[in-house]
Design a protein that fits this description.
The chain has 594 residues and is mostly helical. The protein is 36% helix and 5% strand. The strands form 2 sheets. The protein has a 3-stranded antiparallel β-sheet with strand order 3-5-4. The chain starts with 19 loop residues before the first helix and ends in a 10-residue tail after the last helix.
């Protein structure tokens, strides 16, 4: 008799409490697959445990917030920083490979037991949630490794899947999409989920997630193709199932799914700019109870998050350094700062409103609200730094602060949360991203958007950021293009959020170009820092200065990392399979380049 070697714990209150009679059903050591999953409540509790396998503040910040990307003006060794430089080597083990398979085995077991369930109470929603979670785990594997071994049943010693070659990414994606279709069919709408269960997956969340998968794979096929697959014979997972004719149908389904969520989901952009001095794009990301912001707003006001990790100060705190890490590791680079438009809707190199860099506060004037919401000092959030507030003295001080995902007034006597007690929810997909997926899919299909399509998507995000609406005539008059603007909005709106930047650069086929460039910090030439030892210590910077393009033309700026040490290549689009897995299974082939 096979033993189930994991224990089903009670989860937080909002995932439905375990009942006492279920707790006493059997001691954990005696729970086996012959006695477990025989009642509907077992399936409820079992499916609830899979929420623990979503990304967390405790374990996944580096990946979630894109440490080391081209948008980040901070440098260190290890993790995603090394990945961004093309320095990743094949490890012996990788938790991002093994942990998903542990979770998938538990999911497969639940689904097998559901197939023979004979109870009267419906378990449809619990099966649907499990299908969603299995799709989530497999998509994370595909994004990281490409094709992987596809397992849809619980395995025992000697089963053929344990010695099978990898499936191609296209075969795995087909299973992901099938699982998400089943999830969509069986899950409740957000409106049907009670207040105590908020955070559970809804039909709309499954639709939005399927749109995310489809957009990722359609653009990957379009811009990357089979270049990362290997031949599947001597290296890589191969390209079995690749079909470029699926690109447009995938994109069309993205449009359909996102439009359904937009029209029927009941979600809203969280816009309290009038109450928060235009800082909605900060307080949305540290929202807890009414003490988490100066307007007294709590999580009940947030109708923007669609798929997210649920946290609670009483039941589930972050348990790790969140504000501390975000304060340092995602300070912006020169590229990120210069992406923000002026309030006339124009890029800074075209806008007469842009005031340059001579004085510290100049570049913040008349810019997108998100610039001050993200990148002013968290202890006096929203106050534009003045001359003398920023001291360039080395030690990763490249000119800018970050306050996104930092608890209000963290590190002061008035701090709302102490280190490790932060309990704001972790967004995976929110309405703003759904708008951006809708706009991008339309562009990829048609090469353009109508003014009406811009107004129901990208312009809604721009409005919250204090920017004017764009139209085809506006773009034409200012020699701008909609592809650039969609990608600009995605880059800014989703900064340090949801593991989007590396994945976007790769699926657009431009990662080696963007990640291979020199990363810059503050502009020095012609500014208050130049030749000013009180504000700038040149010897504190190992890579010195170099000339780069800025909003006022070529200027000398601090070098965060030179292009000479940034060697990201097409081979780095996929991570290496851990060597222990290859040792266990001779049919398992390594990804190209490792």
């Amino acid at each position: 008799m096979k033993k189930i070697i994991y224990i089903i714990p009670c989860l937080m209150v909002f995932f439905s409490s375990c009942e006492d009679d279920f707790i006493d059903l059997a001691p954990p050591a005696s729970i086996t697959d012959q006695v477990y999953y025989t009642e509907a409540e077992h399936f409820l509790t079992g499916s609830n445990t899979f929420y623990n396998n979503l990304m967390t503040w405790r374990n996944d910040q580096g990946i979630y917030s894109d440490h080391g990307s081209d948008l980040v003006g901070y440098t260190e060794d290890g993790g995603m920083q090394e990945y961004s430089r093309g320095d990743t080597q094949a490890p012996e083990t990788d938790g991002y490979y093994s942990s998903p398979y542990s979770a998938i085995r538990a999911m497969n077991l639940l689904l097998e037991r559901a197939a023979v369930y004979e109870g009267d109470e419906s378990i449809e929603a619990y099966v649907a949630a499990t299908k969603f979670h299995r799709a989530y785990q497999y998509f994370n594997l595909v994004q990281r490794f490409g094709g992987v071994t596809l397992v849809t049943r619980s395995l025992d010693v000697g089963d053929e899947e344990l010695s099978a070659p990898r499936n191609s990414r296209y075969e795995v994606v087909a299973q992901i999409l099938a699982d998400l279709d089943d999830a969509i069919a069986g899950l409740p709408t957000e409106q049907e989920i009670g207040s105590n269960d908020k955070g559970k997956i809804s039909k709309w969340a499954a639709m939005a997630y399927k749109a995310d998968v489809l957009l990722h794979e359609a653009t990957w096929m379009k811009y990357v193709g089979t270049t990362t697959d290997g031949d599947g014979v001597s290296i890589g997972a191969g390209s079995a199932g690749f079909d470029a004719s699926k690109i447009d149908p995938y994109l069309q389904e993205v449009v359909t799914l996102t439009k359904t969520v937009m029209d029927q989901g009941g979600f809203e952009l969280w816009n309290y700019n009038d109450d928060l001095d235009n800082l909605s794009s900060n307080f949305l990301f540290n929202l807890e109870d009414s003490g988490s912001n100066p307007a007294g707003l709590d999580k009940a006001t947030n109708k923007e998050f669609i798929f997210y990790g649920k946290y609670d100060f009483t039941f589930r705190q972050a348990g790790d350094l969140v504000s501390h890490v975000y304060e340092g590791r995602v300070k912006p680079s020169r590229k990120m700062m210069d992406l923000f438009l002026s309030t006339d809707g124009l890029p800074i190199d075209q806008s007469p409103l842009f005031q340059g860099y001579d004085n510290t506060p100049d570049e913040f004037q008349d810019r997108d609200y998100r610039m001050t919401a993200y990148f002013t000092y968290h202890k006096n959030l929203g106050e534009i730094p003045q001359n003398g507030d920023v001291v360039l003295n080395g030690t990763n001080n490249f000119g800018y602060f970050n306050s996104k995902f930092m608890s209000w007034k963290w590190g002061t006597d008035e701090a709302y949360r102490a280190t490790k007690t932060e309990a704001y929810d972790m967004p995976f997909i929110r309405l703003a991203e759904v708008y951006l997926m809708y706009a991008e899919a339309l562009y990829e299909l048609n090469g353009s958007l109508t003014d009406a399509e811009m107004n129901e998507s990208i312009n809604l995000i721009k409005a919250r950021a204090g920017l004017p609406a764009i139209s085809n005539s506006f773009l034409a008059a200012n020699n701008m293009n909609i592809e650039t603007e969609i990608r600009r909005e995605r880059t800014i709106e989703l900064y340090a959020e949801g593991a989007t930047r590396f994945n976007d650069l790769k699926r657009w086929g431009i990662a080696e170009e963007e990640l291979g460039e020199t990363k810059f910090g503050a502009v020095i030439e012609g500014t208050v820092y130049e030749n000013n030892p009180d504000l700038y210590t040149p010897e504190g910077y190992g890579f010195g200065e170099a000339t780069t393009t800025t909003g006022v033309g070529p200027r000398s700026a601090l070098v965060v990392e030179p292009s000479s040490i940034r060697n990201f290549s097409r081979d780095n689009y996929l991570f290496p399979i851990p060597t222990s897995q290859i040792g266990l299974n001779p049919s398992m082939l390594q990804n190209p380049g490792y």
